[in-house]
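Researcher: Going back to the complex we discussed earlier. I've cleaned up the inputs and rechecked each line, so this should be the final set. Can you rerun the prediction on the complete assembly and write out the structure?
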Amino acid sequence: MARTFVMEFERPVAELEHKLESLKRLDLTAQPDLAAEIVALELEIEKLRETLYSSLSAWEKVQVSRHPERPKTQDYIEALFTDVVELHGDRLFGDDGAMFAGLATIGRRRVAVLGHSKGRNTKENIARNFGSPHPEGFRKARRVMRLADRFGLPIVSLLDTAGAYPGIEDEQRGQALAIAECLATLAGVRAPVVVVGIGEGGSGGALAIGFGDRLIMLENAYYSVISPEMCATILHKDAGRASEAAACLQATADDLVRLGIADEIVREPAGGAHRDPEVVFEGVRDAVTRALDELADVPADELVSRRYERLRKTGVYTEGD
Amino acid sequence: MPISDWFKAREAKRYVTPNGPVDTSDLPDGVWIKCEECRRTVYQGDMESNLQVCPGCGAHGDLTAADRIAYLVDEGSFVETDGSLGSVDPLSFTSGKPYAGALEAARENTGMREAVLTGRATILERPVVVGAMDFRFIGASMGSAVGERITRAFELALTERTPLVLAVASGGARMQEGMLSLMQMAKTASAAARLSEAHVPYIALLTNPTMGGVTASFATLADVIYAEPHARIGFAGPRLVEQTIRTGLPKGFQSAESLLAHGMVDAVVDRRELTERVALTLDYLGSGGE
Ligand SMILES: [Zn+2]
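Model: Rerun complete. Updated structure for the full complex:
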């Protein structure tokens, strides 16, 4: 596979891969030892990758979560769902390509699907505003949340955004209000809500479709109150200290399980989800269908009050003297 | 008391401002202060009796949460709830200024335990649950404790079926508590949704500044949203917007007046008229049309 994008921490792997490529170009018949050397090098690469990925720092995981070849919402929809009916528009102003909304079937369950939609190439990314929704995206999501609520369809929500788009017109058209209304609506949906962090979980723009009855996180996905770069800029006036900020923010899948915010982690192959998407799709399919099965028989009132109680328990504070 | 009588009664009312927000260190005895907007020198007593609104240009000065509540509710009617609820440092956040120290300093500087005061009070004799946020306390950012106090205010209003009035100011979610802070947006918004469902009135006053995760959660879910003149209200910080779009920002961007023009708030209300406006609004919302 031709790799077009190398993350800094993966450079040692990339260098060995480069060496492997050149070995493979040599004439095997002229050098009998070459075949063995190639096999050894392949093993070495795999081992090095596994070592690297077994102890990724928070900042390295953030980079993996943003990898351009990482599977996107569209890939999950194509791989996991059948009979997909995409629903467009917010009925107010426009249709936002950064937010997918629709109806689909996963296994034997019919659901509504929401998802931040990054592009898989430059052209798609421009059409989808790199996955950063405008108010119209959140209002479309909210419209489909209400649809799901009215017709008792579970919601499966896929998170992958750097955040809500911070533009002038976004502010003027009520970006904050659009997010707030999603939160209020999601709180009351009388059907199961299963959220999957597949890549980036950037702050309020992620949260707008990002809480519910279950939160499943991919191993290298993150979900944070603020991007590490912006956090570092605020604290140190230096985005270059993002690595330190990423560690402090405790926003990896492991962190979120420890904090009681996420329920389950779907493992990724060494090298990240893009190195073997099928394995990750299978893991997500399993986790989502299990969650939907578990929630299927919970009465609607009970679902809504449990969802509230779950949030009520989120937070750490002291009380009394 | 009918609103019209209150106008007369207010003439006699004396406001107390224990913590004047304006720096007067370079002026003798803090008797005279300079308005930052019109540069006029104003007698501090005049500012106090004018609710920290400049008599010259009408600029609204910053208020502490205690003053905000004192100006809004009937004298002596405020009884705080959840006053012992405070923040901890759940992530041991040490990047930059360690969070534990920042909390300590904020408590020392403000005499408050957290960035929001909540409680019961009356507004022109109308019972309310009331809250006010204090920007001096870590930018009135919302962490677990602020989120919990706000949520409990919503729940108190719900169980007692008493209208809720919140004076909001905030820089957004408190990043030093990471995802626990982000989830407070969902928590407070869910509490607001429950109050709304129960048809108990909720009025928000957005003051300078109301930004980020607070604007994007409970603050804008009110039945009626009022804003203070010239308050900055928005989601993304202006510098981030500027960097993103790589051009200058339009005049009055994210000002209360601009939000009014774009249909995002119900009205921009002068601080000196707020109490009677809130009371009148509550009368309509609680009247059932009778
Ligand atoms: Zn002035």
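Model: Worth noting: The mean pLDDT of chain A is 95.
Researcher: Good, that matches what I expected from the previous run.
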